[in-house]
Design goal:
alpha+beta; Rieske Iron-sulfur Protein; oxidoreductase activity, acting on paired donors, with incorporation or reduction of molecular oxygen; Ubiquinol-cytochrome c reductase iron-sulfur subunit; metal-binding; iron-sulfur; iron
Length: 141
């Protein structure tokens, strides 16, 4: 390869790198695919949630997320990080008791993620929710 060809090759390479950097800046400002302008993403249809009582999605956020209706107010939807704050075990939703229970050490949490009892000392992380056109939307990091 001669010097001229090398310089042309390096020039086009730098233009390509510059353009890909500009493209990533522009797409970083737009909502992610499936998100609305406020950053909420569709999680589940209300009919599916009501049929099963809860929905767990492993790949919705960086950690698994569980969505449940509040047993005291069916108009309220809670979304929580499904990992126990004690040792990161996956919590289970016990609909008959209306609590999240950690199977590893028995910590329990209210539907809104608040700590109730057990070795965990912190609440489950919560995420904002909204209902739009019969779907539950969640805003997760």
């Amino acid at each position: 390869m001669n010097r001229r060809r090398l310089l042309v090759w390096l020039g086009w390479g730098s233009v390509g790198a510059w353009l890909s950097g500009i493209a990533s800046l522009l797409t970083g400002c737009a909502p992610k695919s499936g998100e609305d302008a406020e950053g909420f993403a569709r999680f589940v249809n209300l009919a599916v949630l009501d049929e099963s009582g809860f929905i767990l999605q492993d790949f919705f956020a960086k950690d698994p997320v569980i969505v449940v209706r509040d047993p005291a107010d069916k108009n309220v939807i809670h979304a929580v990080n499904a990992l126990c704050t004690h040792q990161q075990c996956l919590v289970n939703w016990q609909q008959d008791k209306a609590v999240f229970v950690c199977p590893c050490h028995g910590s329990t949490f209210a539907p809104d993620g608040k700590y109730l009892q057990g070795p965990a000392k912190a609440a489950l992380q919560t995420f904002p929710t909204k209902i739009h056109e019969d779907d539950v939307w969640v805003k997760a990091d």
